[in-house]
Design brief:
- By secondary structure, the chain is mainly α.
- The protein has one domain.
């Protein structure tokens, strides 16, 4: 409860100050400060899972029938995810080996542009330092959440505090339909061991009903703020028990790595825009090297085509989870040569 109280307080302060994406950024900053100060902050796993399921249902509702009409160029931008992942991982690997000084396995799995949980587990199982991998990914997500909304506010004129949809009342049938999407999607994804299943499963189930127009019901706008608080608090809790000096060093190293990823994402964005004509602001979010849930919330808050952004991040996570371990196994025999 301490963590959640910090998240609500931080979000409220940021909201009153008129800062971009206030509920998530405020919750994240406040909880991180409390964590490095030694406060016993922890977020119940079930609470975060429930909120991620709710977020998945919200994102699925963005797949309205008109998505089919404008989804043509998505194939091109989705195809560019493969070169993005290859370039981003390769450049980050060089950085983490030569600048950060990580040992090879830790550097490799810390360099993947996504998949915090999967990369931490796989990296640890293959001999890497789980703590370093997890902290590196957490620091990258922290910085992306801080920097991207701020950049949109400064250079794009977006105000995340004003982009959430207004309150839309739900009747009992609508609520039951959305709840069924969340439960069924989560259970199916969990049974199939889908990466990020708590988000992907409900999103797919919700989209399956919204895309053909079976329902147009959506969760009320205030639920976006609640999701931001919980997700932001969860990011901050990842730094619990970590010394201030360690957090500072990890954030500094992550900033250097993030700059490399931003340059690569910017080049891919420019190329995708030239090929497809898609709004570069939306493409920036689609290729942003942040967490899937976090970037989806940014898209929702800024009103920048959550369907496109979500689709790209789901594809990115699947590709990362598939390609990163595969490439490691293919390259590993060479490392064992005398």
């Amino acid at each position: 409860m301490i963590a959640l109280a910090c998240g609500v307080a931080g979000g409220s302060i940021f909201f009153r100050l008129g800062l971009p994406l206030p509920w998530m950024m405020g919750a994240m900053v406040a909880t991180t400060v409390a964590a490095v100060a030694g406060a016993p902050v922890a977020l119940p796993h079930r609470l975060r899972t429930v909120m991620i399921v709710v977020l998945g249902v919200m994102l699925g509702s963005a797949f309205t029938p008109d998505v089919i009409e404008r989804a043509g160029p998505w194939a091109v931008s989705l195809g560019l995810l493969v070169p993005f992942i290859v370039l981003a991982t390769g450049a980050s690997l060089i950085y983490h080996r030569r600048i950060a000084g990580y040992e090879p396995v830790t550097a490799y799995f810390a360099s993947a542009p996504g998949g915090l949980t999967d990369m931490t587990i796989m990296g640890g199982a293959l001999g890497g330092d789980e703590r370093t991998i997890a902290l590196t990914h957490s620091a990258r997500i922290f910085l992306v959440v801080m920097l991207i909304p701020t950049a949109f506010r400064l250079f794009g004129g977006f105000d995340g505090a004003q982009r959430a949809n207004p309150f839309v009342p739900l009747d009992a049938i609508d609520a039951a339909v959305l709840a069924a999407c969340g439960v069924a999607g989560y259970l199916a994804a969990n049974a199939l061991r889908v990466p990020a299943g708590a988000l992907v499963g409900p999103a797919v189930a919700s989209a399956a009903l919204h895309l053909p127009g079976v329902t147009d019901s959506a969760l009320p706008g205030w639920s976006v703020a609640v999701a931001q608080i919980v997700v932001g608090t969860a990011i901050g809790c990842r730094f619990a028990g970590v010394a201030v000096r360690t957090v500072g060093r990890v954030l500094a190293l992550a900033l250097g790595s993030l700059m490399i990823l931003v340059i690569i994402a910017g080049l891919i964005t420019a190329f995708a825009n030239a090929l497809t004509g898609l709004d570069p602001r939306i493409l920036v979010l689609a290729y942003a090297p942040g967490g899937m849930a976090e970037m989806a919330l940014v898209a929702l808050a800024l009103g920048l085509d959550p369907a496109l952004v979500t689709t790209h991040h789901v594809a990115r996570i699947f590709l990362v989870v598939l390609l990163i371990p595969l490439a490691f196994r293919l390259a590993r025999p060479r490392d064992r040569s005398p």
